[in-house]
TrEMBL record:
Residues 241-274, 290-321 are annotated as: Disordered. This is Cysteine-rich receptor-like protein kinase 10. Residues 1-239 form the Protein kinase domain. The lineage of its organism: Eukaryota, Viridiplantae, Streptophyta, Embryophyta, Tracheophyta. Keywords: ATP-binding, Kinase, Nucleotide-binding, Receptor, Transferase. The keyword Kinase applies.
Length: 321
């Protein structure tokens, strides 16, 4: 119910939901160019050329700005503040104008404004989770800020944080970016697909923002309002980052033996305050005319499965998500 009230051009529209016992179904609008990861991490050869053509620097910068605005809306301007908890390239969708939309609220949490953080059990994705969150379950909007910082460094470098192979004394993508930042040659960490389109000043600013957002100490990370201000106009002097934190990367997910894409949380959700826990947004083929038959089954008594379905507004066809 609360998610369906979210309205922002950088947040995907939720058309409806269905709750049937332990089964939960979310129905989102279909977003034409699908998710950012498919282009950003598309690999070698002709794919690099494709990434250079469609994901040139101006577009990537617009993606960074749009995701920052969407997150600011969720954290501060939505009716009830929300922490997304799973910001990553595959959960950023690109519409027909390449404008980004934050998607996949399967792990989102309501966040009482008066608190600095809430204690939760951990759910998230390898390579994007803030250190204080995976160490102690301390959840605050700064957890999304950390994931956003990882995403910014991925957009600049074209590299997937969780697939980074250690090099030049850097064991993570963030350390690698930090190395270039301290040497003042951030253009050397650029995605080769951006060579002819990048703006060196904007690249340097984005790397600095990415590093500030991924500071190990959440208090040293800016909030999304500050990030949006810095990105939107000529910023004043920006704080100097120190060495970034290390994102959670030991296991893909905390799965408690329920399979690769299951989460066990034991907490109430932004979507359904009655749910005791959630699990995955697993892909499936759905027929919008027959929603009841598309609900996926729950995988364990402590786990509820949330399934995602997308609908194209123009012709009401469905697509796998
Ligand atoms: N509303 C949508 N419109 C268009 N494509 C979508 C939509 N939602 C999801 N997708 C596509 O479906 C893919 C699978 O999405 P899904 O959320 O199930 O998996 P994921 O994001 O790759 O991983 P995770 O399960 O960790 O979220 C996405 O990568 C995206 O390309
Ligand atoms: Mg997803």
């Amino acid at each position: 119910m609360l998610l369906s009230r979210l309205q922002h051009k950088n947040v995907v529209n939720l058309y409806g939901y269905c709750a049937h016992g332990e089964d939960k179904l979310l129905v989102y609008e279909y977003v034409a160019n699908e998710s950012l990861d498919k282009l950003l991490f598309s690999g070698q050869g002709g794919q690099v050329a494709a990434a250079a053509e469609v994901l040139h620097w101006r577009r990537r910068f617009e993606v960074i700005v749009g995701v920052a605005r969407g997150l600011l809306y969720l954290h501060e301007d939505a009716h009830t503040p929300i922490i997304h908890r799973d910001i990553k390239a595959s959960n950023i969708l690109l519409d027909e104008r390449w404008s980004p939309k934050i998607a996949d609220f399967g792990m989102a949490r309501l966040f009482p404004e008066e608190l600095t953080h809430v204690q939760t059990r951990i759910a998230g994705t390898n390579g994007y989770m803030a250190p204080e969150y995976f160490m102690s379950g301390a959840l605050s909007p700064k957890v999304d800020v950390f994931s956003f910082g990882v995403l910014v460094i991925e957009l600049v470098s074209g590299q997937k944080n969780s697939r980074f192979s250690p090099r030049h004394d850097a064991s993570t993508l963030l350390e690698w970016a930090w190395m270039f930042y301290t040497q003042k040659n951030t253009m050397d960490m650029l995605d080769p697909a951006l060579r002819s389109t990048a703006d060196a000043e904007q690249v340097a600013m984005c790397v600095q923002i990415g590093l500030l957002c991924t500071q190990a100490n959440p208090k040293l990370r800016p909030d999304m309002r500050r990030v949006v201000v810095v990105l939107s106009k000529k910023p004043g002097p920006l704080e100097e980052p120190i060495k970034p934190g290390i994102p959670y990367s030991k296991h893909k997910r905390r799965s408690h033996g329920l399979g690769r894409s299951s989460y066990t949380t034991g907490e109430s959700s932004a979507m359904s305050s009655g749910a005791s826990s959630y699990a995955t947004n697993s892909a499936f083929a759905a027929n919008p005319n027959n929603m009841a038959s598309t609900s996926s089954s729950s995988s364990a008594t402590t786990t509820t499965t949330i399934t995602t379905m997308t609908i194209t507004p123009t012709n009401s066809t469905t697509s796998r998500s």
